[in-house]
Amino acid sequence: MAESTSETPVLDLLADMTANSMAASSLDPETLMLVRIAALVAVDAPLFSYVMNLEVASELDIDPERIRGVLAAVAPIVGTPRVASATGKIVEALAVEMEIAELEELSEEVADEEVDDQVDDQVEDEVEDDEVADDEVEDDEVEDDEVEDDEVEDDEVEDER
Hints:
Elements: H1 9-24, H2 29-42, H3 47-59, H4 64-78, H5 80-160
């Protein structure tokens, strides 16, 4: 078996399997997702499976009413315990999705604040550099004035001689 260079080889494998399944299916993407959710209910899939598939369902704009319809459709076949288990996992998966969205939003805000702080620091550095440059120009002007004063004094001393 070839060694994987990815940091997430299992997730990559699952993504490849899902892509291959979708490519091989004659179902439209929305119907395919609804069938996949029905299969998750039938096998009493773990929470992570619901998180991954509900994310895709959300991207396809499949509304909660359609998912409830799937649960109602499979209930007589898989039984109440599986539907109840699936319902709890779906609720939990949606809560996880909301937390992920909030964390992503918070992460973006923090990144924006860091950029703002960097810009502020850069502006402060430029202002400080300008102030130092202005001070140096003033020092040079004072030195030039002092040199001129010394020259005038030297000229006056020579004139007095």
